[in-house]
Model the fold of this input.
Amino acid sequence: MSNHEIRSEIPGTFYRSSSPGAPPMKEDGDAVAAGEAIGLIEVMKTFQEVRSEYSGTITFAADNDEPVMPGQLIAEVKE
Done:
């Protein structure tokens, strides 16, 4: 089995749900498919989806509403 990292491409605030009060897109231990959105990064009221390039089981390294920097680990996907 392989572990793959999902890292932030931009600085901003990472959100695990699409809006306040909405359930998270994914929880630790959930299955994720390649191309599936796992969260959002907000920069100056502009939102960019964070998508997994891999299929497997996801574990988050970044918390909801956490500031992230480019290259920072957001999650890992275990195939």
Summary: The radius of gyration is 12 Å. Residues 16 and 39 are 4 Å apart (CA to CA). The chain has a mean pLDDT of 96. The first strand starts at residue 3 and ends at 7.
